[in-house]
Specification:
heterodimer; A: 323 residues; alpha/beta; Rossmann fold; Alpha-Beta Plaits; four-stranded antiparallel sheet; 14 strands; 36% helix; B: 287 residues; mainly alpha
Chain lengths: 323, 287
């Protein structure tokens, strides 16, 4: 279990990470989501002991990352945002060095390196210089070094950034596979990636943790009391008149109005299906055809925008469910 | 530390740097030996080493410029920071690898006095004494170069600063001889105190620490000025002669094996390696 308690990082008067606390259990894939500059990498660097915290603590299976660094770091594998590679070495030489520096017994080094190469499908490139490898393969070498020593936790900081779509799919598949045997913590500002891979999401904005839940729970939570998109065969004036008779509609934003047809976004209160029913009968009574009536589902993108757009206000995370 | 040491050696084996460094080192020493021992038929090999000292101004930056600066530039310092090893392990591993790259060609140079002794009267103890001191001088200068490399992300900047530092070390004594008069000496001492304070400020990111160092330097100068004002007349030349690593080496060139010189070189190396470790740690605190 990784326990982060009141973690804070300040650079002079600027607070990069502001009193963040959360607990990550074993056997899950976690997504660390936030816009650029939100404090994701800083938090990850502190979680892995690369960066000292101004305040707070990080414990890995009970070992403090700052006080018992040597033991705690053995439980972690970390791929920083820019893979830390030596271009003049081959992947095999590089992995051998990392294995030795991680203190693996000499007898295990060959087997561990071979296993990491196999898991990341790097065997054909094992003896090429890293400088001659594509970005995707370099990323794999970075992931391979994180796998050495069979760490319980693998932390990947934006592992797909800068890759082409094919390479992104390959790395995502790889992370999926890793998630079956390790606890993976993945940071990204790409929502679809987190949605596709992660079981739980931590959203960080302005250095604060603003949400921590499963993507599904977050969507459900923010979907209620939502919006409807309505398209009707009437003028804007007629539309307003009909909507005035439906109490569930609290606001109407006209999107288009041309050739006797209009499209609007409706803010509704209460249950969405009840509101749809009321709208249907109101339009039927006015003998006006509804061309489209779609409840807007709050997907992760909307949640992300809603949660990260707000200015820092010191509020606690919206929700933190048991996983 | 062993893993870092082996890794550094592996990096040297992949590039030309170590070979170029060794070749130039042997070339400079060889030239000195040819000029003094062969052409002029002087039996003292230590003179060849004394004449080579200026070569350190180019060779030390060549060897040390990339050692930490390149790690920072390529962000591989992050990998080293997340491995279960200490900053001291990292710095010592790197230093010992550079020491080996320096000492390996020096082993070849060790044969020269022996070869010369086959053709004339060479006093081997003073020749080998100077060789030992030469190795310690090189190791002290390498530690200074490594520290400078840890101050920047740019190899070019590290090389430039290192050349400047080596030139200062080399010419410090003769330049200091030009400084005479109490007020000039006091002014130079305060400037040196200011430079030291800036360095401390850079290392600790604390204006207070830098200010304290400068205040202490100024207080020391004032104390000396009150207690023994005559000392200030030639304070800078005396200080430079004492601190210059090259000046101390000339004692060995003159045939005296000065143990305090060796202790001084070891102290310089330990001091700058300590500063290197502090620089590495500072990165962990300041990002």
């Amino acid at each position: 279990m990784i326990a982060v308690e009141h973690l804070t990082k300040r650079y002079g008067s600027f607070t990069a990470v502001d009193d963040i606390s959360f607990t990550l259990e074993q056997g899950h894939i976690y997504g660390f989501l936030g816009p650029n500059g939100a404090g994701k990498s800083t938090t990850m660097n502190m979680m892995t002991g690369c960066l000292a915290a101004t305040a707070g603590s990080v414990t890995i299976d009970g070992l403090d990352i700052f006080e018992q660094a040597r033991e705690a770091k053995k439980l972690l594998g970390y791929l920083p945002e820019i893979p830390p590679l030596y271009p003049e070495q081959t992947p095999e030489e590089y992995l051998r060095f990392v294995a030795e520096a991680k203190g693996l017994p000499k007898a295990q080094i060959d087997a561990q390196v071979a296993k990491a190469l196999a898991e990341t499908r790097l065997e054909p490139m094992a003896n090429r210089l890293i400088r001659h490898l594509s970005k995707g393969y370099r990323q794999r070498v970075g992931i391979a070094q994180a796998l050495l020593g069979d760490p319980h936790y693998i932390i990947l900081d934006e592992p797909t950034v800068g890759l082409d779509p094919l390479q992104i799919i390959e790395i995502r598949d790889l992370i999926h596979e890793l998630g079956q045997t390790h606890t993976v913590i993945l940071s990204s500002h790409i929502l679809s990636e987190v949605q596709a891979i992660c079981e739980s999401v931590l959203i960080i904005a302005h250095g604060k943790l603003v949400a921590f839940d499963t993507p599904q729970n977050l969507e459900n939570r923010l979907a209620s009391g939502g919006r409807l998109t309505l398209s009707a065969d009437c003028s804007a004036e007629a539309l307003r008149r009909i909507l005035a008779a439906v109490p569930a509609v609290c606001d109407c934003k006209l999107l288009t109005a041309e050739e006797g047809r209009c499209k609007a976004q409706l803010e509704i209160t209460g249950d969405a299906s009840e509101a749809c029913k009321a709208l249907f009968f109101a339009f039927a009574k006015a003998e006006t055809a509804i061309l489209q009536l779609t409840p807007e589902k709050a997907d992760l993108e909307n949640i992300f925008i809603e949660l990260t757009d707000a200015q820092p206000d010191g509020k606690e995370p919206r929700h933190e469910s048991d996983l | 530390m062993k893993a870092i040491f082996k890794h550094e050696l592996s990096l040297y084996s992949h590039g030309l740097l170590a070979y170029v460094f060794g070749a130039f080192l042997l070339e400079f020493i060889g030239l000195g030996a040819m000029l003094y021992n062969i052409n002029r038929a002087v039996a003292n090999f230590e003179y060849a080493l004394g004449s080579f000292c200026i070569g350190f101004i180019a060779l030390v930056p060549l060897l040390t410029m990339r050692v930490v600066a390149e790690e920072k530039k390529q962000k591989t310092d992050q990998l080293l920071s997340l491995l279960p090893i200490t900053s001291t392990d990292i710095v010592l591993g790197k230093y010992f690898a550079m020491a080996l790259v320096f000492i390996a060609p020096m082993l070849v140079a060790c044969v020269y006095p022996f070869i010369f002794s086959l053709y004339g009267d060479v006093y081997l103890p003073s020749a080998y004494g100077a060789l030992i001191a030469f190795v310690f001088l090189g190791l002290a200068l390498i530690s200074i170069g490594m520290f400078i490399s840890s101050l920047t992300e740019s190899q070019g900047m590290a090389a430039g600063l290192c050349v400047a530092a080596m030139l200062l070390c080399y010419y410090a004594s003769s330049l200091a001889d030009q400084i005479s008069g109490k007020f000039v000496n006091v002014a130079v001492l305060l400037v040196l105190g200011g430079v030291l304070a800036l360095l401390v400020n850079k290392l600790t990111a604390s204006g207070l620490a830098g200010g304290t160092v400068f205040a202490l330097c100024a207080a020391a100068v004032a104390a000396v000025g009150i207690a023994k004002p005559s000392l200030l007349e030639s304070a800078v030349p005396t200080l430079m002669k004492t601190l210059s690593p090259f000046e101390r080496f000339y004692t060995f060139v003159n045939g005296v094996f000065d143990v305090t010189g060796i202790v001084y070189y070891i102290s310089v190396a330990v001091f700058f390696l300590f500063l290197c470790v502090q620089c590495w740690e500072k990165k962990r605190y300041n990002g």
